[in-house]
């Protein structure tokens, strides 16, 4: 173990430029006595060794999912979701804390096998590998309470489980599948810890990193103020996205008692760039539906408000509930028009060129109309328990769309086989028709895997 750690230290420092060939100087600095030089080198090496850490994680998983034959994904031709997947992941993490400098890097090596039973790839299988860096960071302490950093990070905050509306950078908070990493984006940050209660952060999201989106990346800049006191905390986040608008977000929590915690999280903007279905009237009483940013120039407020609470029993079980109001979400009339738009595109999907290709293009904005949630009212209930028989952990999360009555049930189980190994199972049962939010893409899914940490 010691020799492997020394090798990792040498490798990490070499690629970081801290250890390796040094610059030549026209004038050599005064030499120190041999004893002092040797003592200094030993101390320096000791600091490096003590500040270097690594963690290796291997995740092997198999999954099955049933794609929905919906107007958004006709015959599984549009999304081409595989029925079976086998995946092997090697996730090494390296970090170095040396005086004022902190460095970290998280490369990922993934091998995936997919097989299809629906759509144009039916009865076919494919294998592909992926190598990338999901996160890396270089941080420097300018002062005792002032830090600057640049790197690729997964910046998450807020107390909620269902979503984090105050986060202007990431839609996915990673809660629905804790074994699947949220890929990082590129950030430059400065953090000033003013005192134990107040912290100020300036954040610039300057690159998309490994994130994938249907739309072109636009840099986002934010200022975040955090306040923490006894049994209470609150944060305020102001952000601006280029070619978009200013958003104001925030979250807060209150520990009412040893078992009860209440929290809230929200986001507010003037207008929105969400795509809404709109009618175009043509001659001869014909009409056409298209997706447009109908409220882009509006000054009316649009908000996402999340109210939540959790209670932990003395025996360790915890129950949580969250309600979300999404003002920019589709009303009943807009939802009906949205599904009519999808049906129209689906009807012409299999037509020859150019009609079929135009139908496929029409389904792209319907896939992601830039909404975190499609409708306006949601309820989430969650039950959580750990250390069952000192080995088993359980999370059951149920989310209900109060507008179209579709729902999603997610059970998450983990069983410890030892100090370093865990079996896990993650399910996903979507309840609702193919013209509902949760029934549009996948009917059900199941992931079974094993995780080994060393």
User: How many discrete structural domains?
Assistant: 1
Just name the CATH architecture. Beta Barrel
| Structural Rg | 26 Å
How many helices?
A: 4
Description:
The protein has four helices and 20 strands. With 454 residues, it is mostly beta strands. The chain has a single domain, classed as Porin. It has an 18-stranded antiparallel barrel. A two-stranded antiparallel ribbon has the order 12-13. A hairpin with a 3-residue loop joins strand 12 and strand 13. Helix 3 runs antiparallel to helix 4. The radius of gyration is 26 Å and the shape is globular. The termini are close together. The relative contact order is 0.11. The N terminus is likely disordered.
Keywords:
454 residues; mainly beta; Porin; 18-stranded antiparallel beta barrel; two-stranded antiparallel sheet; disordered N terminus
Concise account of the structure shown:
The protein is built from four helices and 20 strands. The protein is mainly β. It has one domain: Porin.
Break the fold down into its secondary structure elements and pairings.
Layout: H1 2-16, H2 34-51, E1 52-67, E2 84-98, E3 101-115, E4 125-143, E5 146-153, E6 185-193, E7 198-207, E8 220-229, E9 232-241, E10 246-255, E11 260-270, E12 276-282, E13 286-292, E14 301-312, E15 318-326, H3 332-347, H4 355-367, E16 377-388, E17 392-401, E18 407-416, E19 421-431, E20 442-453
Antiparallel strand pairs: 1-2, 1-20, 2-3, 3-4, 4-5, 5-6, 6-7, 7-8, 8-9, 9-10, 10-11, 11-14, 12-13, 14-15, 15-16, 16-17, 17-18, 18-19, 19-20
Helix pairs in contact: 3-4
